[in-house]
Amino acid sequence: MLLTVTTTHRPATDLGHLLHKHPDRVQEFGQSFGTVTVLYPEATEERCTAALVLSVDPVRLARSRARNAPDFSLSQYVNDRSYAASSLLGVAMADVFSTARSGTCRSRQELADSAIPLEIGLPVIPCRGGADIARRVFEPLGWTVDAEPIPLDEGFPEWGDSRYVRLRLTGVVRLADALNQLHVLLPVLDESKHYWQGVDEVDKLLRSGDGWLATHPDAALIARRYLGRRGQLTRTALARLAELGDEVEEEVEPAAEEEVRQPEDARVPLNTQRHDTVLAVLGELGARSVIDLGCGPGQLLDRLVEQADVTRVAGTDVSTRSLQHAARRLRLDRMGERQAERITLFQSALTYEDDRFAGYDAAVLMEVVEHVDPPRLEALERVVFGAASPGAVVVTTPNADYNPLYADLVGLRHPDHRFEWSRQEFADWSDRVAATFGYRVERRGIGDHDDALGQPTQMAIFTRTEDDDD
Question: Which site in 42, 85, 100, 310 is 20 to 30 Å from 434, CA atoms measured?
Answer without folding.
Answer: 310
